[in-house]
Structures are given as C-alpha cells and as structure tokens.
Design a protein that fits this description.
28% helix, 8-stranded mixed beta sheet, alpha+beta, single chain, globular, 3 helices
Length: 138
C-alpha cells in the first residue's frame, strides 16, 4: 500500500529536549517547521499505576504561532513518516503504558489510527470523542 511506503520515508529530525516529563523534537518538511511533543504525566508510576504520555505535534505559521491545522503545502506523508520515526524512538526509550492523542479533523484521526497500527499492531485503541487512548502494554 502506498501509504505504508510513505510512512517509511521520514526526514531528519532533532531532539530539543529529552527529560523525565517531556520529550520534544523538531523537523522541517519543505519550508515548514514542525514540532513533536510527548508529555509524560506520570513518568515514574507506582506498582499499579500507568505511565501516560500525551502526544501532539504541530507546525508554526509564518508569524511563528503554533497551530495544529493542516499546513496546506502538501508533504503530509513525510510529516507523518517523521512523526512515526520520532514516536518509535520515544517509545523505545520511555516505554509508556498509555498514549493519548487528540484529533479534531477526521483525516488526522484516520492517520493517527494508521500510525498506531504501524507502530503498535497489537495495541488496544480506545476512542472517546476527539481523543484516542492507546494501551501500549497489557
């Protein structure tokens, strides 16, 4: 499938922060700067607690304002391929129990679902409104 192949062609990215509670990376596709953020709400859980990571990414407008809206310049497959690569590295390092995503637009929600299926084919995905909860560990 063409979409799966496109998920395999990320651009270079740079980690700007790799701390206990947040990991941040940035990358450029075309002339647009994107930022990836993963916030660990419980980075060191007790025995019967979950380590949760809220995931988001956005781009900056020409004036530098962050926005989750589609950039409108194309290359969305390279953007998502890069987010998949960044997430794979994050998941390997931090090993959260649950991932949380938000998606207001149906197209973004569909891409999140495909991204999760690629990264975590056995993960359980729960949808509540525009939020997605992915149980990484069982």
């Amino acid at each position: 499938m063409l979409l799966r192949e496109l998920f395999d062609k990320p651009v270079a990215y740079e980690w700007t922060s790799q701390g206990d509670e947040s990991w941040e990376a940035e990358f450029i596709v075309g002339e647009v700067m994107y930022e990836f953020l993963a916030y660990m709400s419980n980075p060191y859980p007790e025995e019967h607690e979950d380590a949760e990571a809220e995931i988001e990414f956005y781009h900056r407008t020409e004036t530098g304002v962050p926005t989750h809206k589609v950039s409108g310049v194309g290359n969305q497959h390279q953007v998502f391929a890069t987010v998949v690569a960044i997430m794979a590295e994050f998941l390997k390092a931090r090993k959260p129990d649950i991932l949380i995503f938000s998606a207001a637009e149906p197209n973004r929600a569909m891409l999140y679902k495909r991204m999760i299926a690629k990264l975590l084919p056995n993960a359980k995905l729960i949808t509540q409104g525009n939020k997605f909860y992915v149980r990484v560990k069982t």
